[in-house]
Amino acid sequence: MADLSEIVKAYDVRGVVPDQWDESLAELFGAAFVRVTDASAIVVGHDMRPSSPGLSRAFGRGAARQGADVTEIGLCSTDQLYFASGQLGLPGAMFTASHNPARYNGIKMCRAGALPVGQDSGLAEIRELVESWAESGPPQRGENVSEGTIGERDVLSDYAEHLRTLVDLTSIRPLSVVVDAGNGMGGHTVPTVFEGLPLQLDAMYFDLDGTFPNHEANPLDPKNIVDLQQRVRKTGADIGLAFDGDADRCFVVDEKGDPVPPSAITALVAARELAKSPGSAVIHNLITSWSVPEVVRENGGTPVRTRVGHSFIKAEMARTGAIFGGEHSAHYYFRDFWNADTGMLAALHVLAALGGQQGPLSGLVAEYDRYASSGEINSRVDDQAGRASAVRAAYQDREDVETDELDGLTVTAADWWFNLRASNTEPLLRLNVEARDQATADAVRDEVLAIVRA
Q1: Among 248, 255, 315, 414, which is least packed by CB within 10 angstroms?
Q2: pLDDT, tens digit, 9 for 90 and up, residues 344-380
Q3: HEC profile for the chain?
Q4: 193-205 residue pLDDT tens
Q5: Catalytic residue, candidates 52, 98, 289, 373
Q6: Sequence spans of domains, the chain
């Protein structure tokens, strides 16, 4: 039996195949998923990794043997699976390891309506069942429960049509768009979503290849957008878009090839969504830029600050009825998309905003990119708690700052702030700094890192 503590994470299942988990374990997860959600039917999809089709089918077999009818939607992005869960009203499972290397795979699970399944919302119970069935396998769900059916359904065109009903791009000026799919699922979804729109598509790495032959499918790492930046500069394109492996995150570069901070995209999309629904709440995590709550207030909305992580964002979306939420990691959440995250819908908003005026993207986003930042800096430490305590001690008695511990340690002064958080999965401390000018941001960064790395 695999050590499930190594592969069952806070929000999903993820590990090396077949070393840490395999199809036999995927079948147990399928059975446990049906038991915990009490589902009579589920929907299952998968990405382009070599192990994904087999793992997905095994999960479906386990679910069907517990009496659930299984709808397989095949190759899809994670937000396409969320669409299917929301549109069909079924619990869902997506087989992907996002941007992790090819030998990894995982399961992102949700209840009907794309409600997340995490440690506090069913994942712990699923793990317990799988562990209890390790020797003898799962018992029958009930005497009168017959095996469920397994069928196929293509929802890609319905997904694309739904997104295009949420953002109108039919009347924008023609735009030249470079898209780097990173050999991930963006290569599957982008052509259908963009079909018929006034967009000249320059496709990079659209071949589905779970070995990621060109670069890692993680656009938040600067080295992975170098090819995109060069193509935008060389061709004179209006914008560049980069998707991660399962295409639920989208990163943007402007016409100069310069990265647009995800906080600026959050602020831009928030302003557009508030124009549709004045007075609504907008969720942002505590390491997005100061510009996000400022723009939300300027556009008549109510900013709501929350912890980092999709389960916290989605919980706050549901609690507040927020119209939109954004994270520094380029995850974007929409009330009109079952509170789930979809990088594709955020990308359509940016394209609509850009194409709805005559200026370049750099000028458009300048209004939303107001401060200097460090980006996220990771420090590998032996004693996370001890080094974090040392930083806390250095600032707790200063009269010119305020501190809070909603998620890690946040220290805020008049002209700067920083957040220091421990990674849940690695011996890392993550530092984010923002200030009114770059010199101050650099000075605060160096001061904190000197303590962290002492």
Answers
A1: 414
A2: 999 999 999 999 999 999 999 999 999 999 999 999 9
A3: CCCHHHHECCCCEEEECCCCCCHHHHHHHHHHHHHHHCCCEEEEEECCCCCHHHHHHHHHHHHHCCCCEEEEEEECCHHHHHHHHHHHCCCEEEECCCCCCCCEEEEEEEEHHHEECCHHHHHHHHHHHHHHCCCCCCCCCCCCCCCCCEEECCCHHHHHHHHHHHCCCCCCCCEEEEEECCCCCHHHHHHHHHCCCCEEEEEECCCCCCCCCCCCCCCCCHHHHHHHHHHHHHHCCCEEEEECCCCCCEEEECCCCCEECHHHHHHHHHHHHHHHCCCCEEEEECCCCCHHHHHHHHCCCEEEEECCCHHHHHHHHHHHCCCEEECCCCCEEEHHHCCCECHHHHHHHHHHHHHCCCCCHHHHHHCCCCCEECCCEEEECCCHHHHHHHHHHHHCCCCCCEEECCCCEEEECCCEEEEEEECCCCCEEEEEEEECCHHHHHHHHHHHHHHHCC
A4: 999 999 999 999 9
A5: 98
A6: 4-154, 158-250, 262-366, 372-452
